[in-house]
Amino acid sequence: MSEAATYVYCVVQSPGAPDLGGAPPGLPGTTPLRLLTLEDGLWLVAAGAPLPEYGGEEIEARLADISWVGDRAMAHERIVEHFAAAFSVVPMKLFTLFASDERAVARLGERREEMARVFSLIAGRVEWGVRVLFQESKARQALAGAPERQGEAPASSGSAGKNFLLRKKAEQEKARALGGQVRAEVDRAYEELASHAAAARRREPVPGEAGARLLLDAAFLVPKGDGEPFEESVRRWADRLAAHACEVTLTGPWPPYNFIEDPA
């Protein structure tokens, strides 16, 4: 086994060799960046990763070390973003390693057709992320403090306990109705934002923070020149959804991680 593996950060599409000058430092302990020719117009941005520091067993043992993994993830992302600012880039996953330069070129060369399709999709485009968080606690507070609807009789007769239960039941019914309205609005927001993008992907939302619910976690592939109109559309929806106790978060632009398949 060689003393160093080949670490690959990304595949860059460029008619000529990309300039490595000004690139940020790579993963701690790795060698300076180098380019490997995949084929005309495609380049691997790579480095030497010393073993056993970046051997499979060592990485597996360190995955629970958030600081160790986080430092390397940030370094990996900085390299990818540096080249993505000027070129179309297919990012590799963190810790994409090969036994040698020749093995990296051969393995990724087997995926040329797939990468050609990916580059055709992502060329001149970047990824934006949009998340919509429904603040359930805020919605319940608003409903609890809302005046009774016109013509609705106040729950003033009967015992205090009965009135309390009736009031809570009414609040729950209102909350369910509001939840349905909010989901419909979020669906409309997603469809409108997707109309501004070359592609869109709606990911399965994970549980939100206490008292909140994540209704939308989506990625949009947007032409670089359309960033401002896309941001403006997100702002309009953020204002509209705020009235429904929703918080909208926009992130990006990023390399198009959600629109590629792992070619390694």
How would you portray this structure in words?
There is one protein chain. The chain is of the alpha+beta class and 264 residues long. It has two domains: 4-123, no CATH class; 126-259, Alpha-Beta Plaits (2-Layer Sandwich), CATH 3.30.70. Helices cover 41% and strands 25% of the residues. Strands 1, 2, 3, 4 and 5 form a five-stranded antiparallel sheet that branches. Strands 7-8-6-9 form a four-stranded antiparallel sheet, with helices on one face. Helix 5 (136-145) packs across helix 6 and helix 6 (160-195) runs antiparallel to helix 7.
Question: What is the secondary structure topology, with strand pairs?
Answer:
Layout: E1 4-13, E2 34-39, E3 42-50, H1 56-62, H2 66-84, E4 88-91, E5 97-98, H3 101-109, H4 112-122, E6 125-134, H5 136-145, H6 160-195, E7 199-203, E8 213-223, H7 227-242, E9 246-254
Antiparallel strand pairs: 1-3, 1-4, 1-5, 2-3, 6-8, 6-9, 7-8
Helix pairs in contact: 5-6, 6-7
Radius of gyration: 25 Å
SSE string, helices as H and strands as E: EEEHHEEHHEHHEEHE
Fraction of helical residues = 40-55%
If you consult CATH, what is the topology of the largest domain? Alpha-Beta Plaits
Number of strands: 9
CATH-level-2 architecture of the largest domain? 2-Layer Sandwich
The helix count comes to 7
Q: Report the uncertain regions.
A: 148-153
- Give average pLDDT, whole number: 86
